[in-house]
Amino acid sequence: MFWSIQDIAKITGVTSRTLRHYDAVGLLAPAKIGHNGYRYYDRDSLVKLQRILMLRDLGVSIPEVQKIIKDQVDEKQALSIHLNLLELEMNRLVKQIEAVKHTVAALEGKKELVIEKMFDGFDHTQYEKEVTERWGSDSYKKSDKWYRSMSAAERTEWKATITSLGEAWMNAAKNGVSPESAEAQAIAAKHVEWLRSIPGTPATEVGGDLVGYIEGLAKMYVEDPRFAANYGGEAGATFVRDALLFYSAENL
After folding, report:
1. Residue ranges of the domains in the chain?
2. Is the pLDDT score of 129 beyond 60?
3. Measured between alpha carbons, how far is residue 69 from residues 3, 114, 170, 171, 204 in Å?
4. Mean pLDDT score of the chain, rounded to an integer?
5. Which of 68, 94, 151, 196 is 20 to 30 A distant from 46 in Cα terms?
6. What's residue 185's pLDDT?
7. Which helix (H) or strand (E) element contains residue 40?
8. CA 140, CA 198: separation in Å to the nearest integer?
9. Strand pairing partners for 33?
10. pTM for this entry
């Protein structure tokens, strides 16, 4: 079964111009082009478009979307990874909804206002205790100040980087590659580069314990379920830990 470019635009809300652009950059080609020059898309095209739109909604750039889709040839596996990320985001939004409901109910005099409930799902400082205990309050304060100073666009880019890293880690883990493989080590290098971009951490401070920082985080990813969830659960987090520990031993 085929759908015309007009059909796809109507169903998805993606403009014909955008679909043509996706074709021009090699991201999504039509399944066929009719004798009248019209573009037609099939079932596989729609599945691929769904993946593209999910990644774009997460703030991932088109070049990065191209790389992710090129690396992930198994559609079912790729969508499973996307589903995991969407469920994590859904859980965060559900918490925010409940928090706002709590505030509304309190304002209506139906219940007492509980500050902790007001900000459940909003607080990016949820790991303050861990950061402070491991690297000191000064490290946390500098990182927190940097995060709060970012613009909306910068935060979107930041989240896109995290999403891209998570995608790459979970894809490699599901493909069964070794943590010591070139593929896993390339992701580990990007992960360390990302950590080095965060001000106030031992990765950026002069004289900071970079090795201890990387290895401590790697272990925390497995030990704390909140972190493990970012990599598909304990198995995925274990893969990330082992790859980062190997990278640290070989390169830092």
Report:
1. 3-57, 126-251
2. no
3. 22, 44, 13, 11, 32
4. 80
5. 94
6. 96
7. strand 39-41
8. 11
9. 39
10. 0.55
